[in-house]
Fold:
Amino acid sequence: MKRVVIVGAGYVGLTLGVASAKVGYEALFVDINSDIVSALNKRKATFYEKGLQEGLDSYFSTKKDIAFSSLHDLYSNYDAKQSIFVVSLGTPLGSDSKALLLPIEKVTEEVVKWMKPDDLLVLRSTVAVGTSRHLLKKIENLKNISFCPERTIEGKALEELHILPQVVSGSTTEARDIAADYFQKITQTVLHAETLETAELIKLASNTFRDLNFAYSNLLALIANEHHVNVNELIKLSNFRYERNTIAFPGLVGGPCLEKDAYILAQSFPKFESNFILEARKLNEDMVLQAIKFIETECKDQNSTILICGAAFKGRPVTSDTRGSFVFTIIDGLKSAKIKAENIHVLDPVVQTVGSNIKVVNQLDQLNSKYDFMIQLTNHELFDDPKFNQFIDQSVSHVVSFWPRKAPTVKPNRSLYLGGTN
Structure:
């Protein structure tokens, strides 16, 4: 098989498509978003990811279209031949905090219409345990399905696709072997999961473990703040040469995976014992409210100016992804506190917009001269720059930071440090 059809050209699908093309596969994309289709056919990356634009330039040099709005359009331009179909849709949560399965069902039904008997469907989306088996039972003519969890970190996805072990599973031995052969060309190590359910659970288990670890460190941050203790010092000393400790450092925990995977894992085991997973998730979700409470207490003027540092959901590695970012919670909270939108500015190296009437800048020299409050949401390298520290010291009255600077000089009673000091 030399053709890979990626259905869903978002962060997961597009990076996998580029990685597939790099090792010789003909990679084609299907996405219902016409802007994504148009951009890819111009070989333009639709988000920032290290090496992504270069990959599109290098491995898709043909002038023929590579992206389509439907499989019908794709096969109007390409002859049918044996293929691997990769479904990489996002998995939104419904109002009940459970993963919405219907979009994946509909897309899989459509894909199966175009599959040859020995083609493979790889499910790459994050799903509740049992979803792959459910699709097998419900969709007629679906034979070969392999769940292969995606576990790359945004900002290093193309690098990690080539070095992280890839777990594969299969509804049949043939499905598992085709998936293994495919990923062995991309990465160094392929691991075989005994069942589809094992592979589904691996993704949820990995991300929820991280979420729980961060929740514990964030709880420590709140306790340490209450007792005037530097939580980063606490964690460093606790972990030093004590191999049984792997306490993470505190910080905001968002993004398109960690914000929902705990819910999907709990959905897979809807019993009382799963409640502690959801309590940890809620603690991580509520951490950002500490910033709003601090500003509501300290802010005496609705004309106050606010600088938010970090708009993407994380700072390292660099990404432009704002899905699951707390910047929107902060902006909404400030607006509820009657802060004017034109007085809220955002500094982020690559994000271009966070909504109407909010000024976003990418460089320090684009900032105003004075701000009443600064809220640091991420740990981007830009915020380690001595010029940034100097600007904060000279131009900001109050600081709220979840990733504090190495040597804060503002008065403690005018600042809130929920990550200690590095």
